[in-house]
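Exam revision sheet. Question 4 asks you to relate a sequence to its structure. Input first:
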Amino acid sequence: MEQDLARQWLATAVEEARTGLAEGGIPIGAALYGVDGTVLGRGHNLRVQDGDPSLHAETAAFRHAGRQRSYRGTTMVTTLAPCWYCSGLVRQFGISRVVVGEDRTFRGGHEWLARHGVEIVVLDDPECFAMMTDFIAANPELWSEDIGE
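Answer key, structure tokens:
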């Protein structure tokens, strides 16, 4: 995938992450893009706001995309490496590519996805990294809860 396009699409996920942070939640955002480059759905982590541990950013974006005949050829863009739960969603529904804003604060399951044929693009975006680093430093207990520690 072209890096400029990946960064352009990442901006949608970053906007969602900022929204989540402004709402008092965990600053992780995601968007699901169609084969033609249109946004099918976007969302942010809502586990704090809604009290629902299953509402990760990728899950919210997937839900907002609604029912699709097929997810082949789609791209999930996320500010943070997807956890195992969200990696399972990508694999279950055949999402073809995952663009990751950063994977230094959390490794997740994207390497597993790559071994199973999903194209992975890690951008190592400084804004995504700073947003998560600042959040984790200010909210270590909430972060530990989010990643299941």
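Marking note for examiners. The chain has a mean pLDDT of 96.
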